[in-house]
Amino acid sequence: MKGMGLGVILLLLLHSIFYVAFCFKDGLLPNGDFELGPQHSDMKGTQVINKKSIPNWELSGFVEYIPSGHKQGDMILVVPKGAFAVRLGNEASIKQKINVKNGSYYSITFSAARTCAQDEKLNVSVAPHHAVMPIQTVYSSSGWDLYSWAFKAQSENAEIVIHNPGVEEDPACGPLIDGVAMRALFPPRPTNKNILKNGGFEEGPWVLPNTSSGVLIPPNSIDDHSPLPGWMVESLKAVKYIDSDHFSVPQGHRAVELVAGKESAIAQVVRTIPGKIYVLSFAVGDASNACAGSMIVEAFAGQDTIKVPYESKGKGGFKRSSLRFVAVSDRTRVMFYSTFYAMRNDDFSSLCGPVIDDVKLLSARRP
User: Fold this and answer.
1) What is the per-residue pLDDT across 223-267, written as a single tens digit (0 to 9) for each?
2) Cβ neighbours around 276 below 10 Å, total
3) Where are the beta strands (DSSP E) in 211-291?
4) Count of alpha carbons within 13 Å of 297, Cβ hemisphere only?
5) Which of 135, 185, 195, 265 could serve as a FRET partner for 47 with CA atoms 20 to 30 Å apart?
6) Could you tell me whether strands 70-72 and 58-60 are parallel, antiparallel, or unpaired per DSSP bridges?
7) In terms of C-beta density within 10 A (0-12 exposed, 13-18 middle, 19 or more buried), how is residue 3 classed?
8) Would you place residue 118 in the very low, low, confident or very high pLDDT band (cuts 50, 70, 90)?
9) Residues linked to residue 185 through DSSP beta bridges, in sequence order
10) Is the preceding omega at residue 175 within 30 degrees of 0, hence cis?
């Protein structure tokens, strides 16, 4: 029996070592920045003609390997980081297989930029999950935005596919892709200190180092599993996930910026006891990203609401507010959005808005 017990322990230890050694570590996918490219003999101009010539990736359709500064007509194609990116033409895709842990949640982050197509979209998938993500709205002046998408692993292998479903007259008109990364997500639970899950937004998608654009969390309607665990994006536009390395954050290391007015809202449904008093508290501020002016965050809890004004100088800072309410059902929806649109005053083309953080919901005693 002792020998059998030792054998089981060794087997479990070896299994753990296998996961540590072979499961994906948070960060860029292998050659996720496409700096390792095809041989010249595998290319025809910028088009890659050998589907396995970009290391770690398999290609399908009209895929181009684009150097930074490449000219296309009147356009100069800029790469956000490094020297190379790929462009997905008509019905083109790139894919890569990664070892994951079955049943675990993961978030994919990638940079994307429009080029010359009118209605550019991307289909991101890990079977059986997929989402068609519109990239029509440009949130930053550089033209490049970081997007995120999440999935639940159904086996110990995940095949990540990024596909351009569009068909244009010019097959070279399609989105540019760079900086593909992944992070394991650990969905948080409510505690006796906060009924809300992930109220500090510390759990979320991978933020690429030395990238000051933040990461867009897509609307819930196109995402089965939120890259921001616990929260839904209940709006037509995305919200932006920001970190303390590049922005001013009221609490901890992460926060959410509401970048598209009333079209950019986050929400969470929590269990409550009808007739019981609760207090919703939160911080409102700015990200120190030149987003200056008068802002208003509207917070909702069940049938109650509060408007919190904030005068931003665009240099960081925050204020705290709270909403006291009586629950009217066993499920209460908590939601936040910005009343107004805003633009950064240093380029007048990047969408921005108020930051929310440190969101807490606790029951309160009757006075």
Assistant:
1) 668 999 999 998 888 999 999 999 999 999 999 999 988 988 999
2) 13
3) 215-217, 232-233, 239-243, 254-257, 265-271, 277-286
4) 30
5) 135
6) unpaired
7) exposed
8) low
9) 105
10) no
Distance of alpha carbon 276 from alpha carbon 274, whole angstroms: 6
Alpha-carbon gap, residue 235 to 238, rounded angstroms: 7
Euclidean distance between the first and the last CA atom of the chain, given in angstroms as a whole number: 62
Cis peptide before 128 (omega within 30 of 0): yes
pLDDT attached to residue 233: 92
| Rg of the chain over all Cα atoms, to the nearest angstrom | 22
DSSP string, 93-130: EEEEEEE--TT-EEEEEEEEE--S-SS-EEEEEETTEE
SS3 for 255? strand
What amino acid occupies position 163? Answer: H
The pair of structure tokens assigned to 219 is 């609307």
What pLDDT does residue 222 have? 63
pTM comes to 0.89
Q: Under a CB-based contact definition with an 8 Å cutoff, are residues 324 and 216 in contact?
A: no
d(CA 338, CA 295): 7
- Answer for the pair 182, 26: CB distance below 8 angstroms, yes or no: yes
* Helical segments of the chain, H only: 2-22
What pLDDT does residue 140 have? Answer: 81
Cα–Cα distance between 117 and 134 in angstroms, integer?
12
Residues 6+ apart with CB under 8 A from 131: 123, 124, 125, 149, 218, 222, 223, 224
> How far is residue 77's CA from residue 230's CA, in Å, rounded to a whole number?
37
pLDDT in tens, 280-296: 999 999 999 999 999 99
The closest alpha carbon to 135, from 126, 125, 153, 148, belongs to 148
CA–CA gap between residue 101 and residue 183 (Å, rounded) = 12
Longest Cα–Cα distance of the chain, Å, equals: 78
Q: Which tokens is 151 given?
A: 């999935």
* Antiparallel, parallel or unpaired: β 215-217 and 144-152: parallel
Distance CA 359, CA 367 (A): 23
- For residues 66-93, one letter each, b for 16 or more C-beta atoms within 10 angstroms of the residue's C-beta and e for the rest, the string is beeebebeeeebebbbeebbbbbbbebb
